[in-house]
Structure formats: structure tokens, C-alpha cells
Design goal:
Blueprint: E1 9-10, H1 13-24, H2 33-56, H3 68-85, H4 87-91, H5 102-111, H6 119-141, H7 147-167, H8 199-228, H9 234-249, E2 257-258, H10 260-269, H11 275-290, H12 300-310, H13 317-326, H14 328-343, H15 346-366, E3 369-375, E4 382-384, E5 397-403, E6 406-407, H16 412-432, E7 440-444, E8 450-451, H17 453-468, E9 472-476, H18 480-488, H19 491-495, E10 500-501, H20 504-513, H21 517-521
Parallel strand pairs: 5-7, 6-8, 7-9, 9-10
Antiparallel strand pairs: 1-2, 3-4, 3-5
Helix pairs in contact: 1-3, 1-8, 2-8, 2-9, 3-5, 3-13, 3-14, 3-15, 6-7, 6-12, 8-9, 8-10, 13-14, 14-15, 16-17
């Protein structure tokens, strides 16, 4: 149902960590594994439902609230937390915290040192972790060996299982997976919990995981689509992921999304259509039917090593430095998400990132840029005098450009006061010189897409203040939405229809050639 040709679907580290951390606070998987599993299926149903709704109602813009900077910070914080939680499997610790903040995880790790743990577990896990990291390094350095890091986890599982089986290491403290139920997943229709006190919490977790999963899937899809030179439809991707997760919730699956590593393997292998996902599914089906009994002696340390080997790809230090270098406010959102996930929880990290992003949007809306314009020599173009110092200001005329898409209640008074401050400064400068007074103030509204009643009221007040200073207000290049509302408010009649111009240049020429009444009386 989706439009991406390369994307490979499956469980991913970030969503898995998100679900385990948030659901673990509500249901203890050790105390009541059945209730925990049923709650996971319910969350998956809600996640799929939200994703499908987003696609049906074309709400793809919601994903954009998680900016690139927020995702970089979120991924980095999540990777560190995931890595610390793998100490349980790497050290063979039996009792470990279910919390996800770094303080609780480190405290649990240090206090668990007093309890029995297996050095063999640690040695085995670290050995294969080094192998996996070397495989990733080789794959990056030599593109022809792209398949090597892809099969390295499978090789690690096979070799570590054989080592434990042949040496009977499970008798010497190495923890193993033991029995894994084979065959197809059973139906989980009757396991869904759609009533009771925890439905609201399941819906909340489902919404958060749905947005995070969509963000990752669409980011992955867009990345590889841009390489191939085509575009993906975000709403179709949402719809496809939604129905997929709804189906998964009915067949004992948890939230899946587009995996960057699997998609990279797909892309490198030369896949052209989504038939690759069907081949992958058939392979998983055969594995479930045939190979699960062979995983009895697989050490838990190797699973921790596989997860740890994937984490360096989630920590984008170069990306964070790039964000810092280019945009400091974006970097604050990145750091907010990072520290929120690291020291609080996943929800707090995401909330911090979105809040900072919203605050930035509001700050730009409340304090938009206002430019004083001047004419470029030997040209009929008016531009920002700060950006182009050679631009010449027309005597007696103040031309101003408003750099805001919306002139509204949030910024109207700021814009009015800023312009009046400039007029006052101009008047004071003129008094000290021998030049005449200000004839007109020209507002270049080419960037203003719309205006509300507060914006119109601010223009009326500005007009009155300018009349006190014996200056005329002129408007250049207003959009049709703006001019329509100004006409309905009869503001155009107040300033005069002759003071609406197509360009700043026309407005300046009209002000220069025309004599205002006050100047004529002089």
C-alpha cells in the first residue's frame, strides 16, 4: 500500500526501547507476562489506528513537528539508554531496573555488582561485539562488502550458539535463551484490552509510538527515494503502516516500522520493488517453523552485543555538531530531546523537543524581522540596507519590509512600535540636519500572506500616528487576501486608494513626485 520501493519493515531499536520503557512502568513483564503481552498488543492496535487515521485525513504534517534536530537528540539519548540497559544481558545480571533514565540504570548496574554475575557472559559478549563492530567498519570502508555487516549478526548467533553447545558453557554461568516457541504467531484478537482503567494509557503510548514510528519510516523512505530520484507520498506511507500494525496487533506482533539498516541492505542488494518484503517474510516464516529449536543454546550476551553494535549508528555526533554550527536554536531542541530522554523518560524527551520547537516558531512569529529598504545604485530594486550597505535611502521616505507571513495579534503591536521608533529616530536626525521632514512611510507587504483584525487595527493606529508627524502611509505589493480584508475593513478608503502600489519603487516615485498637503502649505 506504500509508495516507497526500498523500505524494509520490521522491529527497530528506538520503537522497541520506547515500548519496553513506557509499558514496563505500567505492567511488569516478570510479574505478569501474559498481561504485559496483551497490553503490548493493545498498544500496537492503537498505534496502527492512529497511523491509519493520520493517513486517511492527510495529517502528515504532524510528523514534521518532530524536527530533524529533535530526532538527532532523541536518537542519541535513546541509544545511550538502550546501551546501558544491555548491561543486564552482557553481565548476566538477574535483577535489573525497568526504568529508562540513565541515573536509575547506572544505579542498578553498580548495585548489581554485589550480586552473582558471570564473567564468561561478559567475555563472550564483548568478543562478538568487537567482531560486529569490525564487520560494520569493513562494510563502510568497502562498499562491495555491504553484505558482510548484514550477515554478521546471524554469523555471531550461529557461532556463539555452537560454542555454548560444544563447551557446555551454560553449566558454567553463561545465560542462554532456552526454549523459543516455534511456528506461526497465534491470533491475539481475544487478547486485546479495549476496556478497563488502562485503555487511556495504552492509547497514549500508542499515539507516541505511532508518531515516532512514522517519523523513522518516512525519514528512511525519503532518504532512499531521493537517491533513486523519486518522491514518496507520506500519507500513503502512514496508511500502509497503520493497516500493517493493525494486522500485527491481531496476530501477536508489536509495533513495526521502516528499518534503516534493513532498507540499506535492500537498497545495496539492488531491490526495485516491495517484493523484497515478501521474500523477507517468507524467510522469517520458514525460520519460525524450522530453526527456533536450534536457538536453545543461544547466549543472551550475544543478543546484547547485537543491539550494542547497532547503537553507534544512532548517535550522530557529526549531525549534532552541524546543527550547532548552523542554528543554535535548533541545537537547543536537539539537546532538550537528548537530556530529556537521558535523565527523565522518552515522553519527557519528546515533549521537551516539541515544546522547544514550538517556542522557536512562536518567537519568530512574535518578533519577526523588519528591514529598512534602500535603492541599489543604477537599479530600480529596493533591498535590506543591512545586507546591502551600498543601498541608498531616499530622503524623506522610510521604506520598510515586514518579514512575517502573518500580520496578527501576536506581532502587530511589535511591528507598529518598531516602525514608530524608526520614524521618531528619523525625525530627530532630520531636526539636527537641514533636510525636510518625513513625507511617507512605505510598508512592503510582499511577504505578508494574511492579516487579522488585530493587524488591521495596528495599521490604523500607525496611520494615525504618522498623520501626527505629517507623514503619509503607503502600502506596496499586498497579497490578495490582505488587500481583500483591508478593503472590507475600509482601511484603504482611510489612507486613500492612490496609496496602494504594486512595487516599492512605484511607491517611492509617487511619494517623491507628489507634494503632500502639509508641505504644500509650507
Amino acid at each position: 500500500m506504500g509508495s516507497s520501493r526500498e523500505i524494509a519493515i520490521g522491529p527497530v531499536a528506538v520503537v522497541s526501547m520506547l515500548l519496553s520503557s513506557m509499558i514496563g512502568e505500567i505492567q511488569d513483564p516478570l510479574a505478569d507476562p501474559v498481561a504485559y503481552r496483551n497490553f503490548v498488543f493493545t498498544v500496537t492496535l492503537f498505534a496502527g489506528t492512529f497511523q491509519a487515521i493520520f493517513g486517511l485525513f492527510r495529517l502528515g504534517f504532524l510528523v514534521d513537528f518532530l524536527s530533524h534536530a529533535s530526532i538527532v537528540g532523541f536518537m542519541g539519548g535513546a541509544a545511550i539508554v538502550i546501551g546501558l540497559q544491555q548491561l543486564k544481558g552482557l553481565l548476566g545480571i538477574s535483577h535489573f531496573t525497568t526504568k529508562t533514565d540513565v541515573v536509575s540504570v547506572l544505579h542498578s548496574a553498580f548495585t548489581s555488582i554485589d550480586h552473582p554475575w558471570s564473567p564468561l557472559n561478559f567475555v563472550l559478549g564483548c568478543s562478538f561485539l568487537i567482531f560486529l563492530l569490525i564487520a560494520r567498519f569493513i562494510g563502510r570502508r568497502n562498499k562491495k562488502l555491504f553484505w558482510f555487516p548484514a550477515i554478521a549478526p546471524l554469523v555471531s548467533v550461529i557461532l556463539s550458539t555452537l560454542i555454548v553447545f560444544l563447551t557446555k558453557a551454560d553449566k558454567h554461568g553463561v545465560k542462554i535463551v532456552r526454549h523459543i516457541k516455534g511456528g506461526l504467531n497465534r491470533s491475539s484478537v481475544h487478547d486485546l484490552q479495549l476496556s478497563g482503567p488502562q485503555v487511556g494509557q495504552a492509547a497514549k503510548i500508542g499515539l507516541i509510538s505511532a508518531i515516532v514510528a512514522l517519523t523513522e519510516a518516512i525519514a528512511v523512505g525519503r532518504s532512499f527515494a531521493s537517491i533513486k530520484g523519486y518522491h514518496i507520498d507520506g500519507n500513503k506511507e502512514m496508511l500502509a503502516l497503520g493497516f500493517m500494525n493493525i494486522a500485527g496487533s491481531l496476530s501477536s506482533c508489536y509495533v513495526a516500522t521502516g528499518s534503516f539498516s534493513r532498507t540499506a541492505v535492500n537498497f545495496s542488494a539492488g531491490c526495485q520493488t516491495l517484493v523484497s518484503n515478501i521474500v523477507m517474510s517468507i524467510t522469517v516464516l520458514v525460520s519460525l517453523e524450522v530453526f527456533t529449536r536450534l536457538l536453545y543454546y543461544t547466549p543472551t550476551a550475544i543478543l546484547a552485543s547485537i543491539i550494542l553494535s547497532a547503537l553507534p549508528g544512532l548517535i550522530d555526533i557529526r549531525g549534532a555538531y552541524y546543527i550547532w554550527k548552523v542554528d543554535k536554536l535548533d541545537f537547543i531542541a536537539c539537546i532538550g530531546a537528548f537530556f530529556g530522554v537521558l535523565f527523565a523518560s522518552v515522553e519527557i524527551g519528546l515533549l521537551a523537543a516539541v515544546t522547544i520547537s514550538f517556542a522557536r516558531i512562536l518567537l519568530n512569529a512574535i518578533r519577526p524581522g523588519i528591514e529598512a529598504l534602500g535603492r541599489l545604485p543604477r537599479a530600480d530594486v529596493y533591498c535590506d540596507m543591512n545586507q546591502y550597505p551600498m543601498a541608498v535611502k531616499t530622503p524623506g521616505i522610510l521604506a520598510v519590509r515586514i518579514n512575517s507571513a502573518l500580520l496578527c495579534f501576536a506581532n502587530a503591536n511589535f511591528i507598529r512600535e518598531r516602525i514608530l521608533r524608526w520614524v521618531t529616530e528619523e525625525v530627530n536626525e532630520i531636526k539636527e540636519s537641514t533636510e525636510g521632514g518625513i513625507q511617507a512611510v512605505i510598508l512592503d507587504m510582499s511577504n505578508v500572506m494574511n492579516i487579522d483584525t488585530a493587524g488591521i487595527l495596528a495599521l490604523e493606529e500607525l496611520h494615525k500616528e504618522l498623520l501626527i508627524h505629517e507623514a503619509q502611509l503607503a502600502i506596496a505589493n499586498p497579497k490578495w487576501q490582505v488587500i481583500h480584508k483591508l478593503r472590507l475593513a475600509k482601511f484603504i478608503d482611510r489612507i486613500g486608494r492612490g496609496w496602494i502600489f504594486l512595487t516599492v519603487s512605484e511607491a517611492v516615485d509617487a511619494c517623491v513626485s507628489s507634494k503632500l498637503t502639509a508641505l504644500a502649505n509650507c
